[in-house]
Amino acid sequence: MADISAQVYEALYAKPQFQDLVRKRRGVVLRLLFISMTCFFLVPILSSFTPDLFRLKVTASTNFGLWYLIAQYLIGGAVAWRYAVQLRHLDKMVQHLTQQESQQSSLPSTAI
């Protein structure tokens, strides 16, 4: 039984649709990682090069630095939501591919 599942996975890995799926997943993860890290590392970069920017008053009791740091939570939530949505679609594609492959491998082979 282990040989059958290994054969199914080997056949699945060889499919061009699976390779395309891996590229899509990598693109989603890297794009969202880039957005997250950009927002995260902008705080020390901007605060060291333009410290007056974070002191700008937005309202009477708040400044730009406080608004930016609060916005990071919103951006982080949006990135997490987008990650979940994108990977849900990719998971459906994986499930479809594995079902196709397992159905093909369960068909009786007609070897001569």
Automatic annotation (TrEMBL):
Keywords: Membrane, Transmembrane, Transmembrane helix. It holds the Pfam family DUF485. The chain crosses the membrane at residues 28-46, 66-85. It comes from the Bacteria. The keyword Transmembrane helix applies. This is DUF485 domain-containing protein. It comes from Alcaligenes pakistanensis. The lineage of its organism: Bacteria, Pseudomonadati, Pseudomonadota, Betaproteobacteria, Burkholderiales.
